[in-house]
Amino acid sequence: MIVTVTANPALDVTYRIGALEPGAVIRPAEVRKRAGGKGINVARVLHALGRETLAIAPVGGTDAELFREDLAAAGIPHRLTAIDGATRRTTALVAPDDVTLVNEPGPRMSEVDWQRLTGEVGKHLEHAGVLVCSGSLPPGAPLDGYAQLIVLAKNAGVPTVLDTSGEALREGIKSGPDVVKPNADELRELTGDPHELRAGGAGAVLVSLGPRGMLAATADGTWLARPSRKLDGNTTGAGDAAVAGIAMNLHRSWPEVLRHAVALSAAAVLGPLAGDADLAHYRRELGAVTVEETHATGVNG
Amino acid sequence: MIVTVTANPALDVTYRIGALEPGAVIRPAEVRKRAGGKGINVARVLHALGRETLAIAPVGGTDAELFREDLAAAGIPHRLTAIDGATRRTTALVAPDDVTLVNEPGPRMSEVDWQRLTGEVGKHLEHAGVLVCSGSLPPGAPLDGYAQLIVLAKNAGVPTVLDTSGEALREGIKSGPDVVKPNADELRELTGDPHELRAGGAGAVLVSLGPRGMLAATADGTWLARPSRKLDGNTTGAGDAAVAGIAMNLHRSWPEVLRHAVALSAAAVLGPLAGDADLAHYRRELGAVTVEETHATGVNG
Question: Which InterPro entries does the entry link to (chains A, B) (predicted)?
Answer without folding.
Answer: Carboh/pur_kinase_PfkB_CS, PfkB_dom, Ribokinase-like, Tagatose/fructose_Pkinase
